[in-house]
Amino acid sequence: MSIRHTAAALGIAAAIAGLGGAAVYAATDSQGPGSPPGMNGPRDRPAPATLHSEAVLADRDGGYTTDLTQTGTITVLTATSVTVRSNDGFTQTYVLPASVKASFGVDDRVQIKATRTGPAPTAEPTVTSIGEATNPRR
User: Fold this and answer.
1) Are 55 and 121 spatial neighbours (Cβ–Cβ below 8 Å)?
2) Per-residue pLDDT tens digits of the chain, which is 138 residues long
3) Hey, what domains does the chain have and what are their CATH numbers?
4) Residue 107's closest CA among 69, 76, 71, 70?
5) CA atoms within 13 A on the CB side of 76
């Protein structure tokens, strides 16, 4: 094999190794492809600086599920719903299912995770978890 062929083969091998390394890095990177900024994947906890976000996911049946997160202050709380206002003024009302027990009250800072099914954003999202906000700033 000539020096030219050897150099070309080494260059190709280096390129393949580099692409393989990039693929491994992408596969193990904490922020998945298509994840909104501040999320470690569509169903993971948002970064503390995230005020509110939505991620629309296709399901196996051709439908859609929207995962929502919000950090803010409870402004209204009933037996069946909770309304939260973020620092930027964004306000959202969520359905509180009987399976989710909220031990919070009006004026408490919380972090909400919720889901909404279907393509239209008209239905109120349903709370899947509610917890104390990790960012104490109001």
Assistant:
1) no
2) 556 555 555 556 555 555 454 444 444 334 444 444 444 444 555 555 789 999 988 888 888 889 999 999 999 999 999 999 999 999 999 999 988 877 899 999 999 999 998 666 677 899 999 999 875 555
3) 52-132 (2.40.50)
4) 76
5) 10
